[in-house]
Write a structure and sequence with these properties.
Layout: E1 10-13, H1 18-29, E2 37-40, H2 44-52, E3 63-66, E4 69-72, H3 73-82, H4 99-117, H5 128-131
Parallel strand pairs: 1-2
Antiparallel strand pairs: 1-3, 3-4
């Protein structure tokens, strides 16, 4: 059993995307129990996780690794919301909406994220407490 087998509640995100970076910061602020760990899709551990779970490389989405499965697009985002403090948990129940409807909205944002929010050249330097939540 290698290291990636043991990982749970890992969020893979686009490390070059400002919107994705802000989303990670949003999650960190609302996850005081540090349930979620993070890795950029572009990182070595991100690529190892994608390979281990057979995530198609063409996936243009946030990816949640949870309970030996991976989730993408709106399914990942809504499952992540369940672990956040406050009213954000309620978004989890939107999973009852057909995935095709949820993912249409998700795809619109994903397709335009660089245009609307920009692309970054470097990552923020997190505090030591937050840094330990990032893999790789």
């Amino acid at each position: 059993m290698n290291t990636v087998d043991k990982l749970n509640n890992v969020i893979l995100f686009d490390g070059e995307c400002n919107f994705c970076d802000h989303s990670v910061q949003f999650i960190i602020k609302r996850d005081p129990q540090a349930r979620y760990k993070f890795a950029s899709i572009q990182s070595e551990i991100g690529q190892q996780l994608m390979n281990h779970y057979n995530v198609p490389s063409r996936i243009d989405s946030v990816i949640l690794i949870q309970h030996e499965k991976y989730y993408v697009k709106s399914s990942a985002a809504l499952r992540i919301s369940k672990g956040l403090k406050g009213g954000w948990k309620l978004f989890y129940y939107l999973l009852v909406v057909p995935r095709v409807v949820r993912d249409t909205v998700y795809n619109l944002i994903a397709k335009n994220r660089y245009k609307w929010f920009g692309k970054k050249d470097s990552c923020m330097l997190p505090s030591p407490d937050v840094r330990k939540r990032f893999l790789g």
